[in-house]
Amino acid sequence: MLQLRQPTTHRRRRDAHLLRGSGPALLMLHGHPQTSATWHKVAPALAQHFTLVLADLRGYGDSAKPAGDADHANDSKRVMATDMLAAMRELGYATFLVLALWGERGVVHRCFKPLDEWQRVASDVRGHPMPCGHYIAEEAPDRLLADVLPFLLGGR
Q1: Predicted local confidence at residue 10, as pLDDT
Q2: By three-state DSSP, how is residue 81 classified?
Q3: Residue 150 burial (C-beta neighbours within 10 Å; 0-12, 13-18, 19+)
Q4: Range of 89's domain?
Q5: How much helix, strand and coil, in percent to the nearest 5, is found in the chain?
Q6: Domains in the chain: how many in total?
Q7: pLDDT by residue (tens digit) across 15-35?
Q8: Residue 118: which of 81, 156, 79 has the closest Cα?
Q9: pTM score, two decimals?
Protein backbone atom coordinates (compact mmCIF):
# COMPACT_ATOMS: atom_id res chain seq x y z
CA MET A 1 0.00 0.00 0.00
CA LEU A 2 1.31 3.41 -0.95
CA GLN A 3 0.80 6.21 1.53
CA LEU A 4 1.61 9.81 0.75
CA ARG A 5 2.44 11.78 3.85
CA GLN A 6 2.11 15.50 4.18
CA PRO A 7 5.46 17.14 3.51
CA THR A 8 7.24 18.31 6.64
CA THR A 9 8.44 21.82 7.24
CA HIS A 10 11.64 22.55 9.12
CA ARG A 11 13.41 25.90 9.13
CA ARG A 12 13.78 27.02 5.52
CA ARG A 13 13.07 23.79 3.73
CA ARG A 14 10.17 21.59 2.78
CA ASP A 15 10.78 17.90 2.19
CA ALA A 16 8.56 15.66 0.14
CA HIS A 17 8.18 12.22 1.69
CA LEU A 18 6.64 9.07 0.42
CA LEU A 19 6.11 6.29 2.95
CA ARG A 20 5.58 2.74 1.81
CA GLY A 21 5.55 -0.68 3.44
CA SER A 22 5.83 -1.73 7.06
CA GLY A 23 8.58 -2.76 9.42
CA PRO A 24 11.68 -0.87 10.57
CA ALA A 25 12.18 2.55 9.01
CA LEU A 26 14.57 2.68 6.04
CA LEU A 27 15.56 6.13 4.79
CA MET A 28 16.54 5.83 1.13
CA LEU A 29 18.80 8.63 -0.07
CA HIS A 30 19.06 9.44 -3.76
CA GLY A 31 22.13 10.90 -5.40
CA HIS A 32 22.82 13.87 -7.65
CA PRO A 33 21.09 14.72 -9.96
CA GLN A 34 18.35 12.26 -8.98
CA THR A 35 15.13 12.30 -6.97
CA SER A 36 13.34 9.76 -4.81
CA ALA A 37 11.83 8.39 -8.03
CA THR A 38 15.15 6.63 -8.69
CA TRP A 39 14.07 3.87 -6.26
CA HIS A 40 11.02 2.78 -8.30
CA LYS A 41 12.50 -0.59 -9.37
CA VAL A 42 13.58 -1.72 -5.88
CA ALA A 43 11.03 -0.06 -3.58
CA PRO A 44 8.33 -2.77 -3.95
CA ALA A 45 10.71 -5.54 -2.81
CA LEU A 46 12.12 -3.47 0.06
CA ALA A 47 8.63 -2.41 1.18
CA GLN A 48 7.89 -6.06 1.99
CA HIS A 49 10.33 -5.76 4.90
CA PHE A 50 10.63 -2.07 5.77
CA THR A 51 8.75 1.19 6.09
CA LEU A 52 10.45 3.09 3.29
CA VAL A 53 10.96 6.80 3.63
CA LEU A 54 11.62 8.14 0.16
CA ALA A 55 12.56 11.77 0.54
CA ASP A 56 13.73 14.32 -1.97
CA LEU A 57 16.83 16.10 -0.71
CA ARG A 58 16.62 19.88 -0.53
CA GLY A 59 16.65 21.38 -4.00
CA TYR A 60 15.71 18.11 -5.73
CA GLY A 61 12.37 16.82 -7.00
CA ASP A 62 9.41 18.02 -4.94
CA SER A 63 11.46 19.49 -2.09
CA ALA A 64 11.92 23.18 -1.47
CA LYS A 65 14.66 25.03 -3.27
CA PRO A 66 15.99 27.43 -0.61
CA ALA A 67 17.87 30.50 -1.71
CA GLY A 68 21.61 29.97 -1.80
CA ASP A 69 23.92 31.42 0.82
CA ALA A 70 27.03 33.41 -0.10
CA ASP A 71 29.25 30.48 0.92
CA HIS A 72 26.88 27.85 -0.57
CA ALA A 73 26.68 26.12 2.83
CA ASN A 74 22.91 25.94 2.41
CA ASP A 75 23.46 23.43 -0.41
CA SER A 76 26.03 21.25 1.36
CA LYS A 77 25.57 17.52 1.89
CA ARG A 78 26.05 18.15 5.63
CA VAL A 79 23.01 20.46 5.67
CA MET A 80 21.03 17.95 3.59
CA ALA A 81 21.94 15.21 6.09
CA THR A 82 20.75 17.44 8.94
CA ASP A 83 17.50 17.99 7.02
CA MET A 84 16.98 14.24 6.68
CA LEU A 85 17.67 13.62 10.37
CA ALA A 86 15.17 16.32 11.33
CA ALA A 87 12.60 14.91 8.89
CA MET A 88 12.97 11.38 10.28
CA ARG A 89 12.52 12.67 13.81
CA GLU A 90 9.48 14.67 12.69
CA LEU A 91 8.04 11.46 11.23
CA GLY A 92 8.54 9.79 14.63
CA TYR A 93 11.70 7.74 13.99
CA ALA A 94 14.42 8.05 16.65
CA THR A 95 16.45 5.26 15.03
CA PHE A 96 16.37 4.08 11.44
CA LEU A 97 18.33 2.38 8.70
CA VAL A 98 19.83 4.38 5.83
CA LEU A 99 20.45 3.19 2.29
CA ALA A 100 22.89 5.26 0.23
CA LEU A 101 24.57 3.92 -2.90
CA TRP A 102 27.64 4.47 -4.99
CA GLY A 103 28.93 2.80 -8.14
CA GLU A 104 32.49 1.86 -8.96
CA ARG A 105 32.29 3.88 -12.18
CA GLY A 106 30.85 6.94 -10.42
CA VAL A 107 32.45 10.10 -9.08
CA VAL A 108 31.93 9.20 -5.40
CA HIS A 109 34.05 6.06 -5.70
CA ARG A 110 36.74 7.77 -7.76
CA CYS A 111 37.08 10.85 -5.56
CA PHE A 112 36.04 9.91 -2.02
CA LYS A 113 36.12 7.14 0.56
CA PRO A 114 32.45 7.01 1.54
CA LEU A 115 32.75 4.17 4.06
CA ASP A 116 35.44 6.06 5.99
CA GLU A 117 33.24 9.16 6.14
CA TRP A 118 30.05 7.33 7.10
CA GLN A 119 31.79 5.24 9.77
CA ARG A 120 32.58 8.45 11.61
CA VAL A 121 28.90 9.13 12.24
CA ALA A 122 27.06 5.78 12.18
CA SER A 123 27.27 2.67 14.31
CA ASP A 124 27.11 -0.01 11.60
CA VAL A 125 28.43 0.94 8.19
CA ARG A 126 29.39 -1.70 5.66
CA GLY A 127 29.38 -1.97 1.93
CA HIS A 128 31.19 -1.70 -1.34
CA PRO A 129 30.68 0.09 -4.63
CA MET A 130 28.25 -1.57 -7.02
CA PRO A 131 29.60 -2.66 -10.42
CA CYS A 132 27.85 0.08 -12.37
CA GLY A 133 27.69 3.82 -12.76
CA HIS A 134 25.67 6.42 -10.91
CA TYR A 135 22.07 5.25 -11.47
CA ILE A 136 22.46 2.00 -9.52
CA ALA A 137 18.84 1.37 -8.54
CA GLU A 138 17.88 1.64 -12.21
CA GLU A 139 20.99 0.04 -13.79
CA ALA A 140 21.29 -3.00 -11.53
CA PRO A 141 18.13 -3.43 -9.41
CA ASP A 142 18.46 -7.23 -9.01
CA ARG A 143 22.11 -7.01 -7.97
CA LEU A 144 21.28 -4.16 -5.61
CA LEU A 145 18.55 -6.17 -3.87
CA ALA A 146 20.79 -9.26 -3.69
CA ASP A 147 23.48 -7.18 -1.94
CA VAL A 148 21.44 -4.99 0.41
CA LEU A 149 18.63 -7.26 1.59
CA PRO A 150 20.88 -9.71 3.50
CA PHE A 151 22.65 -6.79 5.17
CA LEU A 152 19.46 -4.92 6.07
CA LEU A 153 17.68 -8.05 7.25
CA GLY A 154 20.70 -9.36 9.14
CA GLY A 155 19.58 -7.99 12.47
CA ARG A 156 16.06 -9.42 12.22
Answers
A1: 42
A2: helix
A3: exposed
A4: 2-153
A5: 35, 20, 50
A6: 1
A7: 556 678 889 999 998 877 788
A8: 81
A9: 0.80
